[in-house]
Amino acid sequence: MDINDLHPPDDYSHRFFIWHEWIQANGPLTTENVFDYFATSMFYDKQSNNQVLRMQTMHTGQPLLNEAEELKRFTGVEFAVVHAQPPTFFIIHKRERISPDNVRPLAAYFIMHNRIYQSPDVYTVLSNRLLTAVNALQSSLDTLRKHRPDYTPRTGFIWPIRDTALTGEAAKKQDETDEPVSTDEEHDLASPSSKRKAANKQQNNMLLFNAMRTTAAHSATSFTSRVHPPASEGAPGTPASGVGQRSSATPAPAGPVQNPSARAPTPQEVAAVKAPPGAGKKKKKRKP
Hints:
Blueprint: E1 16-17, H1 20-26, H2 34-39, H3 49-56, H4 67-71, E2 76-85, E3 89-99, E4 102-112, E5 115-118, H5 122-146, H6 164-177, H7 183-190, H8 192-227, H9 267-273
GO cellular component, one term: mediator complex
GO biological process, one term: regulation of transcription by RNA polymerase II
Pfam family, one: Med6
């Protein structure tokens, strides 16, 4: 990714300036020469009012006695040293002069140990802090997702909470014993997660087996009660119901009531009721 995608061409907040040869030639920075050192950096604007004053007095040979008072005669962009702790720390403001007594700050620069930096604005500081916080949260969530506990039907997802005091005591006891551990035991101790997963898997299998066994027993009881209904002792003349006792509390739908004395005729009775063959009315012969 290009650096210009993050910072515009005129933004130097990600860079700093230092010139070792200038420091060796002119000595350590002071309040008198710090602005000359700043003018050699890429942060300095060649079209500022400070540069105009320097161009006006360049050929006269007379130095500016009070540059701050001379800048009040101009309007526009200017630079001014607002704080100085020579030789290690200086603050320079870039500001726009609107009137002799009214200025508006545009940017701030600080010089620390001969290095010139541009101070970031509030938006940059907040965006970087938020990006750092979000990145830390994302990393934490990724770590928790990798070590998420297994799901159990009884408890769901539960993180194992261990007492640090007990863990320390167990470690001390193990150090005091100093017993040799076999290769298989070392492998088991080195992989507690595999043992925990195996125990959780066995517990899940037992819960599912118990649920299936309970369901099968309930189904067998319901089927037996329907196939072999219990004998009911009713009043005389009332036939026993052929339907087994319902296991559900919902009442059965009421059907049509049949007369116990009425029954369907048999085929022999139907044949006896029919008239004998030839017993019908005789046809009369017509007279010729």
